[in-house]
Design brief:
The protein is mainly beta. It is built from six helices and 30 strands. The longest helix has 27 residues. The structure holds 2-acetamido-2-deoxy-beta-D-glucopyranose (NAG) (3 copies). Belongs to the OST1 family.
């Protein structure tokens, strides 16, 4: 289970009432669209629903076992609306084969009332290179596997699943046989899209009986023209200094090219020619773009060998105050990293990246509570990449107390510890968050509130002062000692 529901869900957990209401809806239509990608696959499923009784406000969605295992992000909305609907895991799961989530509709439907529910998910590690090896001149082909039927605890009049590739070649796809509920060709391909369905009059399908009798597995193989990137590990450390009015963030990143392994030798000449004609092999990675916050300075990027001077940075100025999260997401600096050598399929590349940012961009003091509120982004977005494991450590000023934190989505764990560094007297409190399988939807901000007593503010200057004083005294004493070497000593 690796599904991290958004914060809204947690808030809704209080209002649980687990009534199994399988007969209160029917699906007039289900359409699922899968955007075939690299390490992230975006899936949108629209359920056109009709209420069969008055006052139905909890609609249940179902995910098959494999689908559930791959799903790292899930969001539910009414079609055409911005606000996400709260959902929560349904109490019972059937033989670990079907996972159910209850969605609370904004208002109960009357009998024959209709609504369109849109469920957006992001799947991670859902594709794999096939063939597993590709020569430098060959395309990068991937496979994606899926279940044929979208499951639902309600009867469905008609359903379709479309799998769409961003590059215009679907190489092959499963032509399912003896499909129940199909009246025509069970699968068709048109351009970049393979469509399974329409399938008609499907009974309630969220059960192991249905799965055993009717469910099928289908596979699509397609060319993918972009690198398949994975961040196997992201270790972020953010340090606040009120004294220096600075927020320093450092990321240690292990990047993995999850594309096919290189068949034969690598030819730099061919690589340069391909790059020159703007047709680089997608499984030979020569650069990646990272989205960093706006308003940053002193950006550094080095790997095991040292500073990587071929990187390109474009910093955006600090964002104006009061921007919404969505606007902030579109306001960033970009760093284009170019590893020293092109990264072949299966290879890893470790590097460290850091920057300073004015504290005023991410912290405010709340006079009402007497606390600072600090926001630290969960991660550095590498578009298209999944982050397998992330550790985010936020180091607060010395003496910080009354610490509370709010993560945009629940972490696997969070721990409070003490971080002792140079010139600290008592050590600084640090909060560490751990995450798994972050996607491009997990671009939220962790908020921390804390108090820094006036004396604690002075601790650092005092410590620095003491250090200077000690040096000064030492120097004073030093001058009184005759340290000249007595070269003219008589033998
Ligand atoms: C709901 O629709 C059905 C079929 O169209 C109709 O027979 C029934 O009277 C409707 N019920 C209400 C309450 O409108
Ligand atoms: C590292 O390389 C960048 C070029 O990308 C250069 O601007 C920077 O000064 C270098 N830093 C050091 C410490 O050499
Ligand atoms: C890359 O790292 C993974 C583990 O994260 C390891 O299994 C794999 O062997 C590494 N690849 C290479 C080429 O070293």
């Amino acid at each position: 289970m690796k599904l991290w529901p958004p914060l809204a869900v947690l808030c809704s957990l209080l209002a649980v009432d687990l009534v199994w209401a399988a007969h209160s809806f029917e699906n007039t239509a289900i359409v699922r669209t899968v955007e075939l990608g690299g390490s992230l696959v975006h899936v949108t499923t629209t359920y056109a629903i009709k209420s069969l009784e008055a006052g139905s406000s909890r609609y249940t969605i179902a995910l098959g076992r494999d689908e559930h295992q791959k799903t790292s992000w899930l969001e539910v909305r009414l079609k055409g609306q911005q606000a996400a609907l709260p959902f929560e895991r349904h109490g019972t799961h059937l033989d670990n084969e079907v996972y159910l989530y209850d969605v609370t509709l904004p208002k109960a439907l009357a009998t024959n009332g209709t609504a369109n529910i849109v469920v957006e998910t992001v799947q991670t590690h859902a594709t794999y290179p096939w063939p597993q090896e590709a020569a430098q001149s060959e395309d990068q082909a991937l496979k994606y596997e899926s279940d044929l039927f979208v499951l639902s605890p309600y009867e469905t009049s008609v359903q379709r699943t479309k799998l769409r590739s961003s590059t215009p070649s679907i190489l092959s796809f499963t032509q399912p046989e003896e499909v129940s509920f199909a009246t025509e060709n069970p699968a068709t391909k048109s351009g970049t899209t393979v469509t399974y369905g329409p399938y008609y009059n499907i009974p309630a399908s969220a059960s192991s009986d249905f799965i055993a009798a009717h469910q099928q597995h289908v596979t699509v193989q397609y060319n993918h023209g972009f690198p398949v990137l994975e961040v196997t590990k992201l270790k972020r450390a953010a340090e606040v200094s009120h004294w220096g009015a600075n927020l320093n963030i450092q990321d240690e990143i292990i990047l993995h090219n999850a594309g096919p392994r290189l068949k034969g030798h690598f030819s730099r000449l061919q690589h340069q020619t391909q790059s020159y004609y703007n047709r680089p092999a997608p499984h030979v990675l020569s650069w990646a773009t990272l989205l960093l916050p706006a308003g940053i300075s002193n950006v550094y990027y080095y790997d095991l060998i040292g500073n990587v001077s071929t990187s390109r940075l474009r910093t955006a100025p600090s964002p104006p105050k009061g921007l919404s999260q969505a606007a902030l997401n579109n306001h960033f600096s970009t760093l284009e990293i170019r590893p020293r050598y092109p990264l072949m399929g299966g290879w890893n590349y470790s590097f460290t990246l850091g920057w300073d940012a004015p504290l005023g961009d991410s912290a405010v003091w709340d006079a009402k509570t007497g606390k600072y509120i600090l926001g630290v982004p969960v991660m550095t977005l590498i578009p298209g990449a999944v982050v397998d494991e992330a550790e985010v450590k936020i180091v607060l000023p010395e003496g910080a107390s009354d610490i509370e934190f709010f993560a945009p989505f629940p972490a696997l764990s969070n721990t409070l510890s003490t971080h002792i560094s140079y010139l600290d007297t008592t050590g600084r409190p640090a909060v560490t968050f751990e995450y798994k399988d972050l996607t491009d939807k997990h671009t939220g901000t962790i908020y921390i509130t804390y108090k820094v007593p006036f004396l604690a503010h002075l601790k650092k200057p005092i410590a620095v002062g003491m250090a200077f004083f000690a040096l000064f005294s030492l120097a004073m004493g030093w001058r009184r000692v005759d340290t000249r070497i007595h070269t003219k000593q008589k033998l």
